Amino acid sequence: MNIYDFTVKDTDQNDVSMSDYKGKVLLIVNTATGCGFTPQYEGLEMLYEKHKDRGFEILDFPCNQFLGQAPGTDEEIVSFCQLNYGVAFKTFSKIEVNGKNADPLYVYLKDQISDDIQDPQANAIKKAFRDLTHNIGGNSIKWNFTKFLVDQEGKVVARFAPAFKPEDIEPYIEKLLNS
Q1: Picking from 54-63, 93-102, 121-130, 167-176, which range would have the lowest pLDDT averaged per residue?
Q2: What is the pLDDT of residues 8-17, one digit of tens each?
Q3: Looking at the 3D structure of the chain, how many domains does it have?
Q4: How far apart are CA 30 and CA 176, in angstroms?
Q5: What's the CA gap between 51 and 61, in Å, rounded?
Q6: Which of 29, 62, 96, 119 has the fewest CB atoms inside 10 Å of its own CB, making it the most exposed?
Q7: In angstroms, what is the C-alpha Rg of the chain?
Q8: Distance (Å, rounded) from C-alpha 154 to C-alpha 21?
Q9: Taken in order 73, 141, 174, 156, is the CA torsion positive or negative?
Q10: What is the pLDDT of residue 150?
Q11: What are the CA-CA distances from residue 131 to residues 18, 92, 112, 116 (Å)?
C-alpha cells in the first residue's frame, strides 16, 4: 500500500484518487480557519505559487477536531480561504484526522512518520518511537496545521509540527523538486 492507493473527497463530495498526484511533491496539511495558526495559509499559498509549475501541490484537509476551529461547510471554508488568503491550492472536504473516524489517508500518513524529526539519520529513533507508541495513539495529530511532505514516488519523507512555518519547509521542497 502507498499514498496513491487512497481516495479522498473534494468539497463537492466527489471522489479524488490520490494517484492523480503521482510524480508530484505534495505537502498535505490538516487546517482550520479559526486557529492561531490560520495565518499560515499565507505561507502555504506563497509556497504553492512559487513551486506549482515545478510539480508541487498542497492538499488542504480542513479538520474541526481541535476545539471546533474549522466550523462551517466545505464551501464556507473554501470561500474564507480564498477571500482572506488568496488560496488557490486544492481544498478537500472536511475530515477527522484522529480517532475511530479518522480518514484512511491520515491513518496511513500518521503511521509513516510518527514524530517531527526531520534528520534522515534518525530513522532508527523514528521506528522505535512508532513501535512504542503505535498502540497508545502516539502517532496522533496534535493540532491543526500538521504538515506531511511526500516525494514524487508517494513516500512520506517528513512530518512538520503545527508551529513549523510553511516558509521554513521550502528547503525540503526544493531538495525534492531538484532531485
Answers
A1: 121-130
A2: 999 999 999 9
A3: 1
A4: 21
A5: 20
A6: 119
A7: 15
A8: 9
A9: negative
A10: 95
A11: 27, 31, 11, 15
